[in-house]
From TrEMBL:
SUPFAM superfamilies: S-adenosyl-L-methionine-dependent methyltransferases. It holds the Pfam family Methyltransf_23. GO terms for molecular function: transferase activity. Keywords: Transferase. InterPro entries: SAM-dependent_MTases_sf. This is Class I SAM-dependent methyltransferase. The keyword Kinase does not apply.
């Protein structure tokens, strides 16, 4: 029997979910009978974990220069969220820091910020692109002294780990009493998850292990000794594009084709490209629907501020 990593209840079989990564077969996802959280029940047949390859490979995506101002805006929204609970100056660790972009932005905003990142790809790019020296380590092995930091950011990381409760326990040990956790994850209880069905962009198989609902996330945080202070559903990063991409995925042969094409993984095929291009004028509509979803607290991803 599989136990829900969020609330501990029983996980029942749910659906097979296709991956946009070429050559990866659909994987079974189960769903918790109590909190609705999804669980990826199998790893891909290949031993590759797709955190340094496929869409996560160390190549610049198509249109990277055009995306830079947008990414800076995303970082500003994330920094404003952090500042609500933990204004600068403060000691911040970004756990699962990716390419170090947020560490650089937080330092520029006056934080004493560092980052922990397990992949070579992330550590190398953080150094070359942002001049940021990340600590290369898995979260549970990172040399962060107990009770030494004011805030930890865990941004679209918890859905990737094998044991979310153990990860939160580690982060809690890093935080001083009353310290802040800024957490971002996809929300399986969102409108866009319903619209996208088994092709919801944020299912992101095979990389995502746990597909949290807000109910499940709150239960897990409570179990691990955190008190939720704020839950944000209106998020520019991930949400409007996620709704649009999930809706378009229902008509393209390749799931999340545009995303994978921008990441230089998906082949440029007319069967995918034509409906995608035809749907581009609907981006503002998708943004409007996602804004309504956010106001109804059903945003495609959520950000949570919690305290120890
Ligand atoms: Zn559950």
């Amino acid at each position: 029997m599989t136990v829900c990593p969020a609330c501990g209840a029983r996980v029942a079989p749910w659906r097979d979910v296709p991956s946009g990564e070429p050559g990866v077969a659909p994987l079974p996802v189960g769903r918790c009978a109590a909190c609705g959280t999804g669980v990826t029940l199998a790893a891909p047949a290949a031993q590759e974990d797709f955190h340094e390859s496929g869409a996560y490979a160390p190549v610049a995506p198509r249109g990277a220069a055009l995306a830079a101002p947008l990414l800076a805006r995303f970082d500003r929204q994330r920094l404003r969220l952090l500042a609500r609970a933990c204004p600068a100056p403060a000691r911040v660790v970004d756990a699962g820091a990716g390419r170090g972009r947020f560490v650089a932005a937080a330092r520029a905003a006056g934080y004493d910020a560092t980052g922990v990142e397990p992949t070579a790809r992330g550590v190398d790019m953080a150094a070359s692109r942002y001049g940021v020296a990340l600590v290369r380590a898995a979260i549970e092995d990172a040399p962060v002294p107990a009770a030494s930091v004011d805030a930890v950011s865990l941004w679209h990381v918890l859905e990737h780990v094998d044991d979310p409760a153990a990860t939160l326990r580690t982060l809690r040990s890093w935080l001083r009493p009353g310290g802040v956790l800024l957490l971002g994850v996809p929300n399986l209880a969102s409108w866009q998850a319903r619209i996208g069905g088994d092709r919801w962009w944020h299912l992101d198989l095979p990389r995502h292990r746990t597909h949290f609902t807000t109910t499940g996330l709150r239960a897990l945080l409570r179990r691990e000794g955190f008190t939720v202070e704020h839950e944000q559903h209106l998020l520019l990063e991930h949400n409007p594009f996620g709704l649009w991409q999930s809706a378009v995925s229902r008509v393209t042969p390749t799931p999340s084709w545009l995303y994978y094409a921008l990441k230089r993984v998906a082949p440029l095929r007319a069967a995918d490209a034509l409906p995608t291009v035809a749907a581009m004028p609907l981006l503002p509509v998708a943004a409007g629907v996602e804004a309504a979803a956010g106001l109804a607290r059903r945003g495609g991803t959520v950000a949570v501020l919690a305290r120890t």
